[in-house]
């Protein structure tokens, strides 16, 4: 495999007395979509928080060979590590286009001084491209409060992509979407991935993850219990029992498509 | 040594009052998630009510015990009223709105007390014994020990209640996560009410006992909130024990400081001890608390549904501003002199209010230090002129730069803390600047005030005493009015323009959600500093213009209660909108609206108190019924229409083109 874009090694997180993550290794290579799945409370979101600097962790995090483990969250974003939120977290006082415009800018001291007098237009080309890539051009002037849950998710993703990240960590982008919308989202993600933006995808929709990802990592109780190609992982008995409990593992196959 | 012990013990009384207020602050935070700026006013209310019942102010005089019982019943009632008016309607509002609501309560109650009982301090009849005990051979009033003992017992009692009773468990659950507590069948409203009544009665009880020791004054008691906030910060707004212990230590420290100021080694100026050391120490204590405890400050698991006021974009600015500016320009020539003066004051106050629009409306932080920064700029201008001969235009530039840098330093000390805690630092800083710098005879104006030369450029006088006069031929000269008008218009355009640009969008992103802003690559600390720098700059410009306007600078114009009233009035009218600042500016002390009121409606010597009453009440009404601010709601409607038409246009363009593959 070519050298990874995102490389997290030995990531561990403690919340008080609870070891939420321990010794987690995850790599995302160029053009890859890696799935991160696991039961509730397995530590999936904690991993994203740790990698993006919102939670203190042990271990190392590298983006395109650059150590970002000591950087504050915004600096990691500027180093190419984008993310979305489970609860989307749009800026509610700004229109959709303005939400994206915030993320599209990489201000320096000099440009900030300029911004005191010169207006930067919210309708930047990169904003238009990101909206177009997710098929939500028509939402540019809407306020976040006026959007449906599915639309909010798309805007949240567009906001993560607009800063031209080297890799994006997506936290449950399909939660709240119906089956068709979810499948459509999978295709969009695949398309964006094929254009060169690698992703780490967390989702509860197992079918979405298995259909979209090149590689899947399974967490349980903060540890990696399985990793590999989707076809192999879905047959792994440890994964089956993590999802359904050990008693059920003999007679039910996880995620088998009808 | 003996005097040291004596003064240390004499500090227990005021330490106890601070502790009682700090306990009230902790209870409010745990019960409803608001930083209660009115906790100090609780002591004032209880003290005055007890005084009135005891001395026959209402026509009948009661003995100590019945008066105390009635006072405590009144405090419970007061707590219920505050809860119903200022807390419950804002249950799901943003932390900033909750904070501003407590500011409304503070302004309203203080104004009411001043109107009912007058402005001079009263002597409260003592409740506790006036016996003395001998400690290490020093006679110390017993009451000091009793008071300290009572707050320690109160703190322990509260800690026990919180640890072992169902009520305490429910409160702790609700402050972890309000929504899950509600799902578990606990009523956040009832929990909040319980804590509120508990807090007000306990604080009021100590307040009554201590009133004869610390004195009964409606101007000083509410400001005891500052040391109490320092103690609450050390306690992370959670621990009753730490809040109580730190408060007592602060009381002891203040008393020792007072004693030290009489010693020969204490730094002096013109033969007397330098003023304001105590307030400076309180400010530094808060900064230390923020750095030490800041990052660990717990975030309450509140259910925030309603966010901050929306921030309308303003189009066609010139068309909107031109009529107002022209009207001002005409008024500056034709009106009688006192009204011309009021217009100028209104213009300058507008600039000051614009600084609140930036820091509160755009960045979502409540800062109250701006008026003090204006004062710093004004005094700097005066001293530069008087002592170094630096006049216009270098003088104001240096003065503005000095005050702006000071402002940024103050703001930087609150950076480690998320949320709305900037108010704590800036409140303490405002008082410290007022007492430590303004009251200092060398750095500030002392008791007399400092004079300022009129600005001149190429021999042309731009000041209020310029030769071109208004129609009635007296000062102030319209020339200075025009100068103020031009500066105000430019800065108004600057603030409105900020909202439309990238920097303004980053500020609003930080205001909405600090974590999401960071994940969008926004440097949250940098944006807060930038916002604070801009706000400080605007305030400093206002300060310089004030100095030229009155041609003398006195500390009275920059006091903290005035600043709080100004903050509140901007919030009432629309904190996210420049127009709000304009109206608030013209309603500020000395500006047009108060002048109209005092000329035709209200008794002259009480106009400022009535204005404070109107603002405080207006704030509570506005938060309840028009949470966006009075002017913002209508501006929003306009903007929604504009956006709809823009979206239509964009769609029609997209539709006209053949759809290409993405």
TrEMBL record, chain A:
<dbReference type="InterPro" id="IPR032823">
    <property type="entry name" value="BCA_ABC_TP_C"/>
</dbReference>
<dbReference type="InterPro" id="IPR051120">
    <property type="entry name" value="ABC_AA/LPS_Transport"/>
</dbReference>
<protein>
    <recommendedName>
        <fullName>ABC transporter domain-containing protein</fullName>
    </recommendedName>
</protein>
<dbReference type="GO" id="GO:0016887">
    <property type="term" value="F:ATP hydrolysis activity"/>
</dbReference>
<dbReference type="GO" id="GO:0005524">
    <property type="term" value="F:ATP binding"/>
</dbReference>
<dbReference type="GO" id="GO:0005886">
    <property type="term" value="C:plasma membrane"/>
</dbReference>
<dbReference type="Pfam" id="PF12399">
    <property type="entry name" value="BCA_ABC_TP_C"/>
</dbReference>
<dbReference type="InterPro" id="IPR027417">
    <property type="entry name" value="P-loop_NTPase"/>
</dbReference>
<keyword id="KW-0067">ATP-binding</keyword>
<keyword id="KW-0813">Transport</keyword>
<dbReference type="InterPro" id="IPR003439">
    <property type="entry name" value="ABC_transporter-like_ATP-bd"/>
</dbReference>
<feature type="domain" description="ABC transporter">
    <location>
        <begin position="6"/>
        <end position="246"/>
    </location>
</feature>
<dbReference type="InterPro" id="IPR003593">
    <property type="entry name" value="AAA+_ATPase"/>
</dbReference>
<keyword id="KW-0547">Nucleotide-binding</keyword>
<dbReference type="Pfam" id="PF00005">
    <property type="entry name" value="ABC_tran"/>
</dbReference>
TrEMBL record, chain B:
<dbReference type="InterPro" id="IPR001851">
    <property type="entry name" value="ABC_transp_permease"/>
</dbReference>
<feature type="transmembrane region" description="Helical">
    <location>
        <begin position="419"/>
        <end position="438"/>
    </location>
</feature>
<feature type="transmembrane region" description="Helical">
    <location>
        <begin position="390"/>
        <end position="412"/>
    </location>
</feature>
<feature type="transmembrane region" description="Helical">
    <location>
        <begin position="34"/>
        <end position="53"/>
    </location>
</feature>
<dbReference type="InterPro" id="IPR043428">
    <property type="entry name" value="LivM-like"/>
</dbReference>
<keyword id="KW-0472">Membrane</keyword>
<feature type="transmembrane region" description="Helical">
    <location>
        <begin position="531"/>
        <end position="548"/>
    </location>
</feature>
<feature type="transmembrane region" description="Helical">
    <location>
        <begin position="582"/>
        <end position="601"/>
    </location>
</feature>
<keyword id="KW-1133">Transmembrane helix</keyword>
<dbReference type="Pfam" id="PF02653">
    <property type="entry name" value="BPD_transp_2"/>
</dbReference>
<feature type="transmembrane region" description="Helical">
    <location>
        <begin position="342"/>
        <end position="363"/>
    </location>
</feature>
<dbReference type="GO" id="GO:0015658">
    <property type="term" value="F:branched-chain amino acid transmembrane transporter activity"/>
</dbReference>
<feature type="transmembrane region" description="Helical">
    <location>
        <begin position="317"/>
        <end position="335"/>
    </location>
</feature>
<feature type="transmembrane region" description="Helical">
    <location>
        <begin position="65"/>
        <end position="87"/>
    </location>
</feature>
<protein>
    <recommendedName>
        <fullName>Branched-chain amino acid ABC transporter permease</fullName>
    </recommendedName>
</protein>
<feature type="transmembrane region" description="Helical">
    <location>
        <begin position="273"/>
        <end position="292"/>
    </location>
</feature>
<dbReference type="GO" id="GO:0005886">
    <property type="term" value="C:plasma membrane"/>
</dbReference>
<feature type="transmembrane region" description="Helical">
    <location>
        <begin position="143"/>
        <end position="162"/>
    </location>
</feature>
<feature type="transmembrane region" description="Helical">
    <location>
        <begin position="6"/>
        <end position="27"/>
    </location>
</feature>
<keyword id="KW-0812">Transmembrane</keyword>
<keyword id="KW-1003">Cell membrane</keyword>
<feature type="transmembrane region" description="Helical">
    <location>
        <begin position="99"/>
        <end position="123"/>
    </location>
</feature>
């Amino acid at each position: 495999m070519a050298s990874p874009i995102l490389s997290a090694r030995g990531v561990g997180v403690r919340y008080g007395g609870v070891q939420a993550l321990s010794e987690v290794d995850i790599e995302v290579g160029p053009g890859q979509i890696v799935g991160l799945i696991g039961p509730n409370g397995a530590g999936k979101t904690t991993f994203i928080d740790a990698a993006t600097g919102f939670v203190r962790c042990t271990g190392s995090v590298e983006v395109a060979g650059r150590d970002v483990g000591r950087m504050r969250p915004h600096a990691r974003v500027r180093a190419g590590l984008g993310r979305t939120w489970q609860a989307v977290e749009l800026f509610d006082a700004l229109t959709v286009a303005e939400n994206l415009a915030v993320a599209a800018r990489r201000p320096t001291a000099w440009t900030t001084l300029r911004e005191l007098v010169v207006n930067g237009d919210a309708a930047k080309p990169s904003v238009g491209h990101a909206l177009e890539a997710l098929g939500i051009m028509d939402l540019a002037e809407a306020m976040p409060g006026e959007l449906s849950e599915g639309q909010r998710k798309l805007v949240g993703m567009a906001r993560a992509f607009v800063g031209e990240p080297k890799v994006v960590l997506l936290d449950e982008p399909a939660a709240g979407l119906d089956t068709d919308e979810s499948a459509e989202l999978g295709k969009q993600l695949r398309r964006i991935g094929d254009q060169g933006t690698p992703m780490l995808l967390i989702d509860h929709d197992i079918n979405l993850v298995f259909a979209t990802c090149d590689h899947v990592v399974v967490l349980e109780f903060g540890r990696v219990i399985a990793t590999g190609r989707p076809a192999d992982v879905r047959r792994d008995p440890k994964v089956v029992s993590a999802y359904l409990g050990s008693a059920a593992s003999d007679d039910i196959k996880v995620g088998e498509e009808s | 040594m003996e005097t040291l012990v004596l003064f240390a013990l004499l500090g227990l009384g005021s330490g106890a009052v601070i502790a009682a207020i700090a306990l009230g602050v902790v209870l409010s935070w745990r019960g409803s998630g608001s930083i209660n700026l009115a906790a100090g006013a609780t002591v004032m209310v209880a003290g005055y009510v007890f005084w009135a019942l005891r001395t026959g102010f209402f026509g009948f005089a009661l003995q100590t015990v019945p008066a105390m019982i009635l006072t405590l019943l009144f405090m419970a009632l007061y707590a219920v009223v505050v809860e119903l008016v200022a807390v419950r309607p804002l249950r799901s509002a943003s932390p900033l709105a909750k904070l501003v609501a407590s500011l409304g309560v503070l302004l309203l109650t203080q104004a009411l007390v001043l109107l009912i009982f007058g402005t001079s301090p009263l002597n409260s009849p003592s409740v506790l014994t006036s016996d003395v005990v001998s400690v290490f051979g020093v006679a110390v009033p017993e009451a000091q020990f009793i008071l300290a003992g009572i707050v320690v017992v109160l703190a322990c009692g509260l800690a026990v209640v919180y640890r072992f009773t169902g009520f305490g468990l429910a409160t702790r659950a609700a402050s972890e996560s309000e929504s899950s507590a509600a799902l578990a069948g606990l009523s956040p409203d009832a929990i909040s009410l319980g804590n509120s009544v508990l807090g007000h009665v306990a604080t009021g009880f100590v307040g009554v006992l201590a009133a004869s020791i610390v004195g009964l004054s409606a101007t000083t008691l509410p400001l005891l909130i500052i040391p109490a906030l320092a103690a609450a910060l050390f306690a992370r707004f959670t621990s009753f024990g730490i809040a109580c212990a730190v408060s007592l230590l602060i009381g002891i420290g203040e008393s020792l400081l007072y004693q030290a100021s009489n010693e020969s080694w204490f730094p002096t100026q013109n033969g007397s001890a330098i003023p304001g050391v105590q307030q400076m120490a309180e400010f530094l204590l808060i900064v230390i608390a923020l750095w030490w405890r800041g990052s660990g400050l717990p975030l309450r698991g509140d259910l925030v549904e309603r966010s901050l006021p929306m921030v309308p974009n303003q189009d066609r600015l010139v068309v909107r501003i031109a009529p107002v500016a022209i009207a001002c320009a005409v008024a500056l020539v034709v009106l009688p002199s006192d009204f011309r003066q009021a217009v100028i004051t209104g213009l300058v106050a507008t600039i000051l209010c614009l600084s609140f629009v930036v820091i509160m409306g755009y960045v979502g932080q409540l800062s109250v230090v701006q008026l003090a920064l204006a004062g710093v700029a004004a005094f700097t201008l005066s001293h530069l002129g008087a002592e170094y001969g630096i006049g216009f235009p270098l003088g104001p530039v240096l003065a503005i730069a000095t005050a702006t840098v000071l402002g940024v330093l103050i703001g930087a000390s609150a950076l480690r803390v998320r949320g709305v805690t900037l108010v704590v630092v800036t409140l303490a800083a405002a008082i410290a600047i007022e007492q430590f710098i303004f009251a200092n005879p060398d750095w500030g104006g002392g008791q007399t005030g400092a004079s300022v030369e009129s600005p001149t450029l190429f021999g042309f006088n731009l000041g209020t005493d310029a030769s071109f006069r208004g129609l009635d031929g007296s000062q102030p000269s319209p020339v200075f009015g025009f100068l103020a008008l031009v500066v105000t218009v430019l800065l108004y355009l600057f603030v409105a323009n900020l909202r439309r640009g990238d920097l303004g969008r980053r500020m609003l992103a930080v205001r909405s959600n600090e974590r999401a802003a960071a994940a969008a690559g926004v440097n949250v600390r940098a944006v807060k500093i930038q916002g604070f720098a801009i706000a400080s700059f605007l305030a400093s410009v206002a300060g310089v213009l004030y100095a030229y306007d009155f041609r003398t600078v006195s500390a009275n114009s920059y006091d903290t209660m005035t600043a709080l009233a100004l903050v509140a009035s901007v919030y009432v009218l629309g904190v996210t909108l420049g127009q709000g600042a304009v109206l608030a500016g013209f309603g500020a002390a000395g500006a047009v609206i108060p002048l109209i009121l005092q000329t035709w409606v209200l008794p002259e010597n009480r106009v400022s108190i009535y204005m404070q009453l109107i603002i405080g009440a207006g704030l509570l009404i506005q938060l309840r019924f028009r949470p966006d601010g009075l002017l913002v709601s209508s501006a929003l409607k306009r903007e929604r229409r504009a956006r709809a038409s823009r979206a239509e246009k964009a769609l029609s363009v997209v539709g006209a083109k053949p759809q290409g593959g993405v």
